[in-house]
Amino acid sequence: MNELMEVAEFPARRMWQLFEPYHAITYFAPECRGSFKDAGLRGFWMGYFAGRAAPMGAVGPGVVTATFYNFAPAMVGRSVPDAWSFASVTQVLDARLEGADLALRRILGDRAESSEVGRAADLAESAVHDTDPCGRPLFAANSDLRVPDEPHLRLWWALTCLREHRGDGHVAALVHAGIDGCEAHVTLAASRAIPRSTLQPNRGWTDEEWAHASDRLRSRGWVDDGERLTSAGRTAREQLERDTDRMAEEPWRRLGQDRTEQLADMLAPLTAAIVSSGVIPVLNPIGLRPS
User: Fold this and answer.
1) Given 82, 153, 201, 290, which is the most exposed site by the fewest CB atoms within 10 A?
2) Burial of residue 291, with CB atoms counted within 10 A of its CB: 0-12 exposed, 13-18 middle, 19 or more buried
3) For 26-43, what is the HEC assignment?
4) What is the model's pTM?
């Protein structure tokens, strides 16, 4: 199934492509990194792990490894739980919101407070509130947070919830397929979607762990000796993505086709502005393809 067919079959895929950049500034914008640093967190990865985990509280490395799924436990352990000794959960959440505020105001300018952004926030917030949180820990944790008052931040909050909803479903698809965190990245690199040189260091897996994951996938017939996906591997990878899309459909089904299309139309120029700002690198481990 080619990408255009996948987008047509699953509105969730199209919506993810539209809303992920709005959320992803949290990881890439200098304002966001600066806010975490000002809060006392040390280094990019401590900011990342604490910032993304903070909606769940001062959780330990086991919870972060389980919910984030694709990071090496040793990498998580270098940031959590130490992060909570440098900044409280409240301070981290405040820093996360402050960074998003500064970055979005810089990139969007006057549009940040426009009625169009307000209407988009209304629709996205409705999708969040109408979606069942059961089995979605990161979605549930973010949706329990206080909703910001400002339109551009209310939209950021809602889209953050929705991207974590999709991520929770993706983890469920991987668990169902019997694919662990390292194996997931080996298949992604083997598909040539994102190079190993980008994935491996950004997820903390050692060469030995990567090699063992490759061996396990080779024994299943998913990758060949050159670490390329076999026909069986491509089929399995496509099924994983389709399962993820299918499990991400509920918010858009609840919102309805007409309102989903309205939100998509409103997000398109915002996404274009974020992409054109260059804040998201062309090669990134999230899988975004800014162009």
Assistant:
1) 201
2) exposed
3) HHHCHHHHHHHHHCCCCC
4) 0.94
